[in-house]
């Protein structure tokens, strides 16, 4: 079998990214280049991603990202087999910029165009990095997403459950904001919590009384706000130790909840009798050492494998979009110039 080389574009949130991925001999994926231009600086003053600013930055950075990705890969447009682009879900302005850029390239070159679901990109990443075989269990945990999926194929996903309110990364970010710690909140709350006592404050363990795989994180934020306000009222401020204990208690609640719901998701997944059972994680929250080791422990207990791709491929990037494009291409999927941007697009 021949090689397949695909250019991928990603612009659905606050990273503008382009990448070239090649499937060598029909089996071995290789990342030839992966360029990511973040926008954190542009949004930091606003305490969140501002859609208008994001869309403008994507429109400005897409062309240069594509040029850099092709250059770094040492591949000309004439050596590509297809162009893959995130067509949703995400902020509509950014997704439209990406789709328009990809259409321009496809129109100029005659290359096939493939619209990719951003979540499918994350969900297929363990196949790009570790060639994990179908079906595997996937936990997507980022600032915007939290769900359990059984991944059966590039277009075959079974959703077992997910958050009914905030995503865990969002909860970390809000916790940091409430305690005056820097953004993104995940790394700062994790660092602060290392010095803390997770048992001093009693955080709830939401939805553990329900047998399903759904999660809820917004109650943790409310609990934290109450505890903080009480401390402020009693002692007119927070000490360093208070902050550390609050972070540790909050994180312990997230860890316990994710561990228990993962146990349940694994039980459902194992009913399929997969030959080589695997849990894979993706998303920025997978960077959290306590969460990672709790998941690894659950996998050990239940006798299944654990895969966590390198962080730069866990967070938003275009290599995952190019790779998903390759798998879709192989199933015969092609989109025409009618491909449209979809702000909402469940798997
Ligand atoms: O996947 P990602 O880069 O972007 C999307 O949300 O799509 O994830 C970013 C999220 C942020 O909410 C950030 O606070 C969180 O991942 N995060 C962490 C850690 N590092 C990043 N959360 C917990 N612990 C961490 N060490
Ligand atoms: Zn993402």
Protein described:
This protein is α/β, with parallel strands linked by helices and 347 residues long. The protein folds into two domains: 4-131 and 316-330, Nucleotidyltransferase, domain 5; 136-275, ATPase, nucleotide binding domain (Nucleotidyltransferase, domain 5). 46% of the residues lie in helices and 20% in strands. It contains eleven helices and ten strands. The chain has helices spanning 40-43, 51-73, 92-109, 118-130, 168-179, 185-193, 218-235, 240-270, 289-302, 311-314, 319-330; strands spanning 4-10, 15-24, 28-38, 82-88, 113-117, 136-141, 146-153, 156-162, 278-282, 305-307. The strands form two sheets. The chain has a five-stranded mixed sheet, with helices on both faces. Strands 8-7-6-9-10 form a five-stranded mixed sheet, sandwiched between helices. Helix 8 packs parallel to helix 9. The chain is globular, with a radius of gyration of 21 Å. The two termini are 30 Å apart. It binds 5'-O-[(R)-(carboxyoxy)(hydroxy)phosphoryl]adenosine and zinc ion. Zinc ion is lined by residues 118, 122, 142, 316. It comes from Ruegeria aquimaris. Substrate binds at residues 140-144, 173, 186, 190, 288. Belongs to the KAE1 / TsaD family. It is an enzyme of class 2 (transferase). Its EC number is 2.3.1.234.
């Amino acid at each position: 079998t021949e090689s397949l080389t695909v250019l991928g574009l990603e612009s659905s949130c606050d990273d503008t990214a382009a990448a070239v991925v090649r499937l060598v001999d029909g089996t071995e994926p290789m990342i030839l280049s992966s360029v990511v231009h973040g926008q954190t600086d542009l949004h930091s003053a606003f305490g969140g991603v501002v859609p208008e600013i994001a869309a403008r930055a994507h429109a400005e950075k897409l062309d240069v990202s594509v040029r850099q990705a092709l250059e770094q890969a040492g591949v000309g447009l004439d050596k590509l087999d297809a162009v893959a682009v995130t067509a949703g879900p995400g902020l509509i302005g950014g997704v439209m910029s990406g789709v328009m850029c990809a259409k321009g390239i496809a129109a100029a070159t005659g290359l096939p165009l493939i619209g990719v679901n951003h979540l499918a990109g994350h969900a297929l990443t363990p196949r790009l990095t570790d060639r994990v075989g179908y079906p595997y269990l996937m936990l997507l945990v980022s600032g915007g997403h939290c769900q359990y999926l059984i991944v059966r194929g590039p277009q075959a996903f079974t959703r077992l459950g997910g958050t009914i309110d905030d995503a865990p990364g969002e909860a970390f970010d809000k916790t940091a904001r409430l305690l005056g710690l820097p953004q993104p909140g995940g790394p700062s709350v994790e660092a602060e919590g290392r010095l803390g006592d997770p048992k001093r404050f009693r955080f709830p363990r939401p939805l553990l009384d329900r047998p399903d795989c759904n999660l809820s994180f917004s109650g943790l934020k409310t609990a934290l706000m109450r505890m903080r306000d009480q401390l402020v009222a009693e002692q007119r401020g927070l000490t360093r130790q208070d902050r550390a204990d609050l972070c540790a208690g909050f994180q312990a609640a997230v860890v316990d909840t994710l561990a228990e719901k993962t146990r349940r998701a694994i039980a459902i997944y194992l009913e399929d009798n997969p030959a080589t059972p695997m849990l894979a994680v993706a998303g920025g929250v997978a960077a959290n050492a306590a969460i990672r080791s709790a998941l690894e422990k659950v996998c050990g207990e239940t006798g299944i494998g654990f895969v966590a791709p390198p962080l730069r491929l866990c967070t938003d990037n275009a290599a995952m979009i190019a790779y998903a494009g390759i798998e879709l291409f192989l199933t015969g999927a092609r989109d025409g110039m009618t491909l449209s941007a979809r702000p909402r697009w469940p798997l």
